[in-house]
Task: structure prediction
Amino acid sequence: MTPEEHQRAATDLLKAEASGHQIDLLSLRYPNMTMDDAYAIQGEIYAQKRAAGCNVIGWKIGLTSKAMQNALGIDIPDSGILFDHMLFQSGEDVPAGRFIQPRIEAEIAFLMKDTLSGNDIGREDVLAATEAVAPALEILDTRILRKDPATGQSRNVLDTISDNAANAGVVLGTERFAPTSLDLRWIGAIVSRNNEVEETGLGAGVLNDPVESVVWLARRMAAYGQKIEAGHIILAGSFIRPIECPPGSQISADFGDFGSVEISFS
Result:
């Protein structure tokens, strides 16, 4: 793909976000696109949102579980950018029409106090740079069709990365814990929709340990000349399958002693 094609794809995705009308699969439009192309499109989204006045508040890591990687035929996670307009507080109500096809995932958020940069970052570096960890939900959305109506082809990881890793929002709980005070592998959640349990999971489902997920992100960003900044929120990756959130959904995630997070969709 050319730089002009990267820019055009990003513009189409942002128009889809604004209008609520999904675009066709980029992997069909550009059959020879690569992962570098997908991240270049994401980079163009970053540039256009920054030009429109949006600020970056952090990053999300996706596809961290073996089940999701196997389903997409890949062996690495992906990442996306969190912008200030994506931040919700626990208990908020999402207005009708804000998202196209929202889903949610349960995650552990890392709240950073120091910058992380370099391809030799390790887990001790991540722990030292983290101010606190907190319960969180990620809101997913897709500005790209999940399946092409003509061919039946499903979107693939390149479509997802291009679409800012399907990120649409982050919901933070109010609880805060020192990252070294807990074994994050054993932090789990019971996630319910309209008072019915939909999913459960443990932090160990995130690359064996959520800290290792942040290690992966710091190293990946270094390869693209980027870094995790002090003050950033890092969503380490979901340990449940995505839960559909049609209008009228009330979502609650019970993390036990780690806290809780709630969000509803009008």
